[in-house]
Amino acid sequence: MKTDFQTLKELHEYYAVNNRCGLRKVATQPVYEITPPTSGIVFIGEAPGKNEDLQGKPFVGAAGKFLNQLLESIGFTREDVYVSNTVKYRPPENREPTDEEKNSCRVWLNAELMFIKPKILIPLGRHAFERFVPGAKISASHGQPFEHPSGIPVFAMYHPAVALYNPNLRDVLKEDFGKLKNYLDNGGELMKNEKADNSVFSNKTKTDINDILSM
Ligand code: URA
User: Fold this and answer.
1) Taking all residues of the chain, what is their mean pLDDT, rounded to a whole number?
2) What pLDDT is recorded for position 198?
3) 1 within domain boundaries
């Protein structure tokens, strides 16, 4: 398995060929971003929808527009952050991804994270949240930070698409983004872990990180 990628584009192009996701046969193309975030902030959604499938970019449809508004409400632009998905191909009819589909994209997502070395992970919705905090419920956890064995804090967030179907959750998401801003402004676990060189990976070997992120 190749691990020495020079760019994210190279990494994605490798995994677009070397993956066993069954959705590959039915999707138009894989969906991913190729620019690492200047902020170290990484959001992880569920799976691409129709617009994403057509454009090859994550969160460019209605949920993406709301995500952009939420980011702007706390002083970030979409370009400041990186957005990915647990599954890189659109499931037919926008159904939820299966465990098998999530598992077959797992090493791809792990490789992305190892390349980027995020300062904070923000799973959007249940599928991404369960990947990082197994067994926890998003309904009880949203708007709160969680520890992850990698040392990277995981800040639980509802998926922006829920607000399109349930207007009450629109306000919850706005509030939770406010909590995220407070968390970032106050450093949270982030500062405690990273005094040395601003990298949560600073005191871990490459093998440790691979083991941790490959879980
Ligand atoms: N919903 C997701 O989870 N991901 C996308 O890329 C778009 C919508």
Assistant:
1) 89
2) 34
3) no
Does residue 116 carry a pLDDT above 60?
yes
CATH assignment of the domain containing 156: 3.40.470.10
pTM given for the model: 0.89
Range of the domain at 154: 8-213
Structure-derived torsion over alpha carbons of residues 62, 117, 104, 51, reported in degrees to the nearest 10:
20
Q: pLDDT value at position 205? A: 52
**Structurally, how many domains does the chain consist of?**
1
| Coil/strand/helix, residue 47 | coil
Residue 50 in any domain: the answer is: yes
In the structure, which protein residues have their CB atom closer than 6 angstroms to any atom of ligand 1?
A: 31, 45-49, 52, 58-59, 61, 63, 85, 161
Distance 203 CA to ligand 1 centre (A): 33
The answer to whether the CB of 134 falls within 8 A of the CB of 119 is no
